[in-house]
Amino acid sequence: MAAAAASSAARRFLFPRLLIASRRLHASASEGPAREASTTSFIHPAAVVHPDASIGQGVSIGPFCTVGASASIGDACQLHAGSHVMGDTDLGEGCVVLTGAILGADLPGRTIIGENNVIGNYAVVGVKCQDLKYKPGDECFLHIGNNNEIREYCSIHRSSKSCDHTVIGHNNLIMGSCHIAHDCKIGSNNIFANNTLFGGHVVVEDCTHTAGAVVVHQFCHIGSFSFLGGGSVVAQDVPRYMMVAGDRAELRGLNFEGLRRNGFSDLEVRSLRKAYRKVFMPAISCQSSFEDRLAELGREIELLESPSVSCMVESIRTSFDQGRRGICKFRSWNLS
User: Fold this and answer.
1) Cα–Cα distance measured from residue 289 to residue 2, given in angstroms and rounded to the nearest whole number
2) CATH superfamily ID and name for 2-207
3) Is 323 a residue of the active site?
4) Active-site entry in 200, 223, 253, 258
5) Which residue range or ranges hold the UDP N-acetylglucosamine O-acyltransferase C-terminal domain (predicted)?
6) Are 116 and 139 in contact (CB under 8 A)?
């Protein structure tokens, strides 16, 4: 089931191979080894490409672009007019960098961007973090996977220290003006709507979906297949499969639409619904605490035979481990 869901999501978000028309560059020997090495690429005369840069085959570099000495541009990449690749930045094959985008920075550390990514207009990716823990001279890192679309005006920062990384997986759609801060760990097949803001050290699992103008507090964990309603301020963890909304977001039930779209069976959804009601919607006569109800669910062998229920229970429990923030508040709707 999980493999099928991941495959379905991947099919939706995989981008076709980016094709560009190769143009032979008649470079003279005085133009440096970078241009000599990319004889099938097009580099506009108004671009500034350092002779030590590594340029692949079939690359197109437009006017007023800059490519730094330590940069590596993979085959079939397109750098549109006025885009910049700085510092120790590795841009994988088939990427498109649109006008005004800035990748990397002349700082210690590295930015690695995988294949077939689209970097939108005026996005800033792989620059210094906004964290006072950062010390000038420390190495800091960003690693982005394949087939991501990062839209206009997004900002994605490197880690705050050399022992950590900011990581983004594969097949994510990151809409305009989103922010992913230092040391975040973002999974795959996620959709972040406009103005979604993640503080430092946030962990987002796979197949999540945010509506617009969502703010997530630093160190929060967002579970797989969850949904964050528009305008939510998320200050605590969101367990897997759940939906939250509101200023200081509260649990609003299971993300039924997301589960349906990702191929969860009716049986799995019924099991999740039953488990959710046992923990968060006790009967009027029930006097047990949340912790007692969660422990009781952990003894429901029949329900726990569902992998989805086991994952949900694990997600809730680990949110209360030392150093974690607990889960978003919930209303105890009593059942008659």
Assistant:
1) 32
2) Hexapeptide repeat proteins (2.160.10.10)
3) no
4) 200
5) 237-328
6) no
* Active-site annotation holds for 68: no
In one-letter notation, the amino acid at residue 230 is G
| Beta-sheet pairing, 179-180 with 155-157 | parallel
Residue type, 5: A
Domain spans of the chain?
2-207
Q: Which of 118, 184, 126 is nearest to 152 (CA)?
A: 118
Mean pLDDT of successive 10-residue stretches along the chain, which has 336 residues: 43 31 29 48 97 97 98 98 98 98 97 98 98 94 98 98 96 98 98 98 98 97 98 97 96 96 96 93 76 88 90 95 92 53
Q: Do 87 and 107 form a contact (C-beta atoms < 8 A)?
A: yes
> Which entry of 182, 201, 217, 221 is annotated as an active-site residue?
182
pTM value? 0.86
> Is 201 a catalytic site residue?
no
Q: Catalytic residue, from 75, 88, 131, 183: name it.
A: 183
How many whole angstroms separate alpha carbon 57 and alpha carbon 38? 5
